[in-house]
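#onboarding

Welcome to the new folks! Below is a worked example of what a typical request in this channel looks like: someone posts a single protein sequence, and someone else replies with the predicted structure as tokens. Don't worry about understanding the tokens yet, we'll cover that in week two.

Example request:
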Amino acid sequence: MNTTIKAYAALEKGARLTPFEFDPGPLGPEQIEIAVTHCGICHSDLSMLDNEWGMSSFPFVPGHEVVGTIAALGEHAKNLRVGQRVGLGWTSESCMACKQCLSGDQNLCPHAEGTIVHRHGGFAERVRCHWAWAFPLPEALDPAKAGPLFCGGITVFNPLAQFDVKPTDRVGVIGIGGLGHLALQFAAKWGCEVTAFTSSDSKRDEARQLGAHAVVNSRDSAAMKKIAGSLDLIISTVNVPLDWPAILDALAPKGRLHVVGAVLEPIPVAAFSLIAGQKQISGSPTGSVTTIKQMVDFCARHGIAPVTETFPMSQANEAFEHLRSGKARYRIVLENDFR
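Example response:
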């Protein structure tokens, strides 16, 4: 059996992807190998391609929103079977021995392995992970659309689960894009009253279709003043600086601003803007094994799916440019067309 894996890789920072082959070596006893059928493109793939976070290594094979079928199981892999359809996200392995892992917060494991960090990801025929980080896909979920749930989806589902958000809460979502369009669906199906923040009035109707009860232009100071003190949770999904004082003013007492968009600039906060209303600012990465399983079940039960555009994997460069130009609506999924 030929163990060589065909993939698409960038050989240096910011380079175009080109055909690439590698030998992954023996399958680990707790690993599984997934035959990739679909792989989403996340903005994190672009950040890693451009080495914005200073942790990329080359050759770089992107792809951490994988859907496929299990092609092989290590001898100690559990609860999975060959041929089963699964999803894989940002994390491919955690140590399962540290305090965080044993407490059920595997996504916070200090030794966690990223699917595209110092190893090859899902723009490939096959990809590997620890068995615990492969999530069976319910029949109700379309495998051609499900990939983005395992990074973009869990990133915005996690705060709803982590912070005991109630159906009576008022939730705001900043940004109607790859993350935000999923956050709107989750919060609406959770039972919350949902406000969408956008800088583009052209997205108003679509935001309402996705579940928003109200849409506010974040650049309209009068509109922002009208909602001051009203929101229990605001999830920020954007990676650009905002009018942070106005956002904090929109929070109700004991409200929380939760950041999941990777803003590279510091967020300036006056202490009294937090003290006066006992407000909080927090952030989180993806979600634990249990929370991802909850999200998958929630999506299957409520018919939640990303809005996607599809490219063949052989056109990954064109798909990247489509994303880089800001034209993606709202997630891009690559279909494996390796021959």
